[in-house]
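Notebook p. 47: complex prediction with adenosine-5'-triphosphate.
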Amino acid sequence: MAEQAIVDKEALLEELLASINQHKFTPDVAHVEIHGNQVLNKNLVDGLMVEAESIEDGVKVHIRVKSGVTLKNPVNFCFGLIPENGVQRIIIDTVIGEGAHAKFIANCTFPNAVNIQHLMNATITVEKGASLSYFERHVHGPNGGVTIVPVTKVLVGEDARFSTEFELIKGAAGVVELEYAAEVTKNATVDMMTRIFGREGDRIHIKEAAHLSGEGSTGVLTSHIALKNRASATIENELIADAPYARGHVDCKEIVQDDARARAIPVVQVNNHLAHVTHEAAIGSVDSKQLETLLSRGLTEDEATDLIIQGLLS
Amino acid sequence: MNLLEIKNLSLFKEGRPILNNLSMDIWEGHVHAIIGPNGAGKSTLANTIMGLSGYRDFEGDVLFEGKSIKALPVDERARKGITLLFQEPARFEGLGVSQFILAGAKEKSRAVVEDALQHAGLSPEKYMRRAVDKTLSGGERKRIELASIYAMKPRLVLMDEPDSGVDIDSVKYIFAVIKELRHRGSTVILITHSPEVLKHADHAFLICAGTLVDKGEMSRMFDYFNGKCVPCVHVGQPTVDAAVQPLAAN
Ligand SMILES: Nc1ncnc2c1ncn2[C@@H]1O[C@H](COP(=O)(O)OP(=O)(O)OP(=O)(O)O)[C@@H](O)[C@H]1O
Ligand SMILES: [Mg+2]
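Predicted complex, structure tokens below:
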């Protein structure tokens, strides 16, 4: 019986990693694989602590990078569910200690999804002078049976940097309810980037907010979304600058084809005359000059559009 | 042998003739220049031959290898071998230089990209990882456009001011590409304001106010740049009526 469980665990792990095209890690690369509410595998390096406990429908994870530590390699997380149906709730609490530097790569994979909910509740604290770059890639099956609801709150300490990239371009997006809120203190920087390709009946709602509360803080919120068929998206980007010399920029680009619908709601607010915030939003079909350039090289309209979208989402 | 024939082409914008009854023969394997003042209609002519949107509705006809291409969309004209180097090339967010160059190339390989960049005088190591976006300088973007066209191996290239924004030391790459294109048998239509560029043509057309005012061997057309335009009263004030007179006088 115990032996069978081990075999199952290994098979699951293999399947999970295969779905994201990842197979072996060298021993100096930290990685954690979580299937449903079960930690399948974990390899840590000096200066990194990851504690996980199973809850009924998911896991609670505490991550800490010790003060002053620079992790040489990115830490690879893999969250997922192989079956067609189920819930995976991830509650994560991450602290990057003072002066520490780390990169996290999270792959969330639901290759066979028919009806899956992936709920993530994260709090991230990047302490003074520290940095975290977080990259989250989603791999969904072709059927779009996934509802993903990631809610993240970030505190970026003095002189600290936080950058996040959220990518969902392979497979059907399903229903996405993404919410990010960052508090950016003195001389700190936040950079949020979202790239999503919505198809068929996908519904996407993104709410990204950065509060530039510290003097000299900077924030850049970027969303690049392509929509086809009947997909729809609402992008809310909010940037509020309260302190002198705070700088911010919102960039929202959405390419809309077929019967897809897109809405962008950029909110930029400045409460200090020494702060400066800008925004640009472009929603619509593919830019005609770009399109005609590629047509004049012999690409068909579909090929040209795909290439332009591929660029926007890269 | 005519690769392209422009027959009595007129194009109107807001009721005004931008191209006015133009007829031109473009000989296969030759480099033809189109010269003329700002606003003469040179880019309009190039865009009309390419079939860009806004330039599809015109009187007269355009024949490629003896067949009308009037009804063909841009991409079908391109697949027949016609292409355009834009006066102000588009910028593409996130699209890699290699991807862009290979988009139009028949043979898709790293060697094709490297060769094209080298011919445009751009180091492959430096540029292959860049994107064809806003961060390229105007001259760099222009030379990547040149590389893309070089890789495409077109039958007919319309080059709309290929030298504009390109520094003095780098125009030599443009000349080298023109030479190489012709060597491979491509036909080139070169729109320019520069006598240096004109030297690389065999033959030139002078257009003013949408009208063909003069045509002839390249060497004879230098007068235009020496302030000795064909005798007419249009200087600084190109109007159709004024421009038509000199041809009638010739
Ligand atoms: N959509 C339009 N509506 C009205 N006028 C137009 C339109 N497009 C072009 N024109 C006019 O047609 C004329 C020819 O323009 P074109 O761009 O072809 O000139 P050009 O010879 O290429 O000039 P340049 O040397 O400055 O590039 C100009 O007077 C221009 O203002
Ligand atoms: Mg022009």
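Notes: Chain B touches chain A at residues 50, 52-53, 73-75, 77-79, 82-84, 86, 89-96, 99, 103-104, 131, 148, 152 (CB under 8 Å). The radius of gyration of chain B is 18 Å.
Next step: compare against the earlier run before touching the bench.
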